[in-house]
Amino acid sequence: MNGTSNKRSREDESNSDSEQPTQYQNSRIKVGQTRNVDASLVPQAPKVPKTLTQKENSRRLIVVLEQATLEAYKVGKDKDARFQLLNADDHVNILKKNGRETYEARPDITHQCLLTLLDSPLNKAGLLQVYIHTQKKVLIEVNPHIRIPRTFKRFSGLMVQLLHKLSIRSVNGTEKLLRVIKNPITDHLPTNAHKISLSWDAPTVRLSEYLPKIPEDQSIVVAVGAMAHGTDDFADSYVDEKIGVSEYSLSASVACGKIACAVEDLWGIL
């Protein structure tokens, strides 16, 4: 008798508890229901300097990916022919047929660098600008708002489209996310900027000690080789000096990451 009454009382308690809405349940939003959010809590996309005056007056890190291997190549014949981004994985026979080495077709290096740079807090804070300078002398301006495809296949399709149309617009068409611009690169860099290039055989520096010595009113331009092999004279015509950032040989993507992190620390970006 007592056992039965105790069992019923426990069931009643559990039922009453389940009927009382919890704080979590009260906060749920039903399908189709809208919810007002404080506008101050919604992150705003940083403004991108567009005019020469804006570029001169805004301090940023400017990364130039030099010697990038981005080349559209026609594959197939007649109606089946289509353009693809030449790369060492898919087009080995084409490279051999034309007497070229596999290291001459490494667009994956550019892809990795872009993912590293554009995912950085520095870019999300609106303090990063990236340019791509290909081995074919094509100069590309990268809008900081762009979301680079995560997969190489989709990235390849995007680059082929860019090389043919010369620009890629956003979905709503209000701004260009990628665009081919006129050479030389120096026409697009702030005149009051400290320009360096990364080199494996240059004197190695600690970025935490080197960067604070740059005047606070100057932007920082860093040229990074986005190729697998080659000499590091790609930016000799416009940089002030060459530096090394590690005692070890680094991939271009890792070098970009080290630079971005060091500048974030310098400018107090978390």
TrEMBL record:
Region span, Disordered: 1-37
Gene Ontology molecular function: rRNA (pseudouridine) methyltransferase activity; rRNA binding
Pfam families per record: EMG1 (PF03587)
Alphabetized InterPro entries for the sequence: Alpha/beta_knot_MTases, Rbsml_bgen_MeTrfase_EMG1/NEP1, tRNA_m1G_MTases_N
Subcellular location: Nucleus, Nucleolus
Keywords from the UniProt entry: Methyltransferase, Nucleus, Ribosome biogenesis, RNA-binding, rRNA processing, rRNA-binding, S-adenosyl-L-methionine, Transferase
Ranges of biased composition (kind: Polar residues): 20-37
GO biological process, one term: rRNA base methylation
Cellular component GO terms held in the UniProt record: small-subunit processome
Family in the record: Belongs to the class IV-like SAM-binding methyltransferase superfamily. RNA methyltransferase NEP1 family.
PANTHER family: NEP1/MRA1, RIBOSOMAL RNA SMALL SUBUNIT METHYLTRANSFERASE NEP1
The protein, known as: Nep1-domain-containing protein
